[in-house]
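Operator note (shift B, R.M.): manual run for Tail assembly chaperone requested after the automated queue skipped it. Running by hand, logging everything below so the morning shift can see what happened. Input copied straight from the record, untouched. If output looks odd, do not overwrite the archive copy; leave it for review.
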Amino acid sequence: MATRQLIPAHDPRVMVTIEVPVEGRKKPLVFTAKRWEFQPEQLIDDFQEHLSSAIDPETGKLAEGRKDGELLIDWWLDTLDLPDADELKKLTIGERNQLWMIWRAESEIDLGESEAS
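Run finished. Output pasted below as returned.
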């Protein structure tokens, strides 16, 4: 019988690091967080509550004036203890949307498949 071992939430393999080059900066901004599915359940619940409060129940759309990047990644930038959070929040909506999409996409890749670029 084969023995398998799961990858625990504290394992470095569950971390996602995204570097964001910024014009005029020698070093890129860095977003480092656990993969989505390894975030504490309470944080996921809090995020779901945040989403619910930002969506108009009648239309099912974001409240007027809200953008996807602002709604999605900014909440995590405020919540996670990231050294570059304030600077990451200054990125354009398009850049923040990319950050969100990359972080979410990394959570879809089997652990151990992602490679540093």
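Quick read of the result: The radius of gyration is 16 Å. The mean pLDDT is 87.
Leaving this for review. - R.M.
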